[in-house]
Amino acid sequence: MRTQIGIVGAGPAGLMLSHLLHLQGIESVVLEKHSRRYVEERVRAGVLDQGTVDLMLTTGVGRRMKELGLVHYGIELRFLNSGHRIDFKDLTGGLGITIYAQQEVVKDLTNARLAAGGQVFFEVGDVSLHDLDSQRPKIRYGGDGDASELQCDFIAGCDGSHGICRSSIPNGVLTIFERDYPFGWLGILAEAPPSSDELIYAYHERGFALLSMRSPTLSRLYLQCRRDEDINEWSDDKIWTELQRRLAAKKRTLVEGPIIQKGVTGMRSFVAEPMQYGRLFLAGDSAHIVPPTGAKGLNLAVADVRVLSAALGDFYASGDSDLLNKYSEVCLRRVWKAQRFSWWMTSMLHRFDDNGTYDRRRQLAELDYVTSSRAAATTLAENYVGLPIDPICVEHERKYQERSPR
Ligand SMILES: Cc1cc2nc3c(=O)[nH]c(=O)nc-3n(C[C@H](O)[C@H](O)[C@H](O)COP(=O)(O)OP(=O)(O)OC[C@H]3O[C@@H](n4cnc5c(N)ncnc54)[C@H](O)[C@@H]3O)c2cc1C
Questions:
Q1: In terms of C-beta density within 10 A (0-12 exposed, 13-18 middle, 19 or more buried), how is residue 146 classed?
Q2: 65 lines ligand 1 (CB under 6 A)
Q3: What is the pTM (predicted TM-score) of this model?
Q4: pLDDT at 181 over 70
């Protein structure tokens, strides 16, 4: 089999890339190891920043998001038993975020690809990459007598943090930057109406907590916990009691409901540089991970493939590989700003094991500053709603949208 772009992974990065390429008349094949049902039911992110929202709308995959997504123009920071609103609309000149579950984004993109005759193959095993430093890289998949080969012009590694693409790059090419945090998040999805109209980030002496939501009837809540926390030790009652302690306020107790999903996630910051080797381009979680406190993972994945699709569009339209050569550099500028923001939110809001009195006083002073200084609140707001898309990318998109109207 032969295609222009072979894409490994049908998460937000792989599917969005395939969609954006299709709009420019570029062929791709997406290979995903899990079933369609599994990827469409995997509960993960839920905060879409302004850039992701705008891209979904302008490329024709935003109809359900517009109908079902919850648009928010602020968040609450809660500490010392008081809530303080960060008003995104006021601080950023009208921008906001949309609460729309990652699995819904994945459903919308999969449906759009399949409706347009796109090739997305699920339950594909034994994927391996070959000849990455040649003009004709290949993907082999399916093992034991049933192996197939996909010949490509380029390969996009969109297979998340545990995929095979990054590890297919020879030793010594990548430099890894990472930071582990001494805690994790215990997250639940509950059939209960959200107890607040907006997200609440709570700094509490027992540890951080986050009140979020996925729809008017589904709450998503998180508790800071140990990295190796055993979820089996957390009954539903124990989880709700702890959430009530950390998030309840004078005039508010949380609305409880049946917990339909729960799990523990470790917190990690990670960047692999460069995001390219030969004709393999890494995008999304395969190249970088942020702790979820800044809600940037999915949005960064989408921002990467936006740059990659413009660069590939440029290459096929004019043979110009300038932007392809700059792919890593352009993406990493945004990646590192998102790393900084996610690290900063995490450091400000969590209880660290070695938090002495000095550090706790310093964290409270930081929260006090962020919620009382317009300048400080603006830096939080503009990072949270999403920094502007790189002008190189915007310019290329404009050019290709003019050339290839949908
Ligand atoms: C608890 C939690 C909360 C989060 N909250 C937020 C949030 O609020 N906002 C936000 O923006 N981000 C959030 N994130 C991060 C976000 O979910 C990820 O950053 C996002 O999924 C990255 O998309 P991706 O397409 O790069 O990778 P993935 O979504 O991981 O997709 C990779 C795909 O590749 C497939 N794959 C892997 N290996 C292979 C292989 N060998 N062959 C073929 N296919 C393969 C996988 O099955 C998967 O479908 C959160 C993450 C977690 C865990």
A1: exposed
A2: no
A3: 0.95
A4: yes
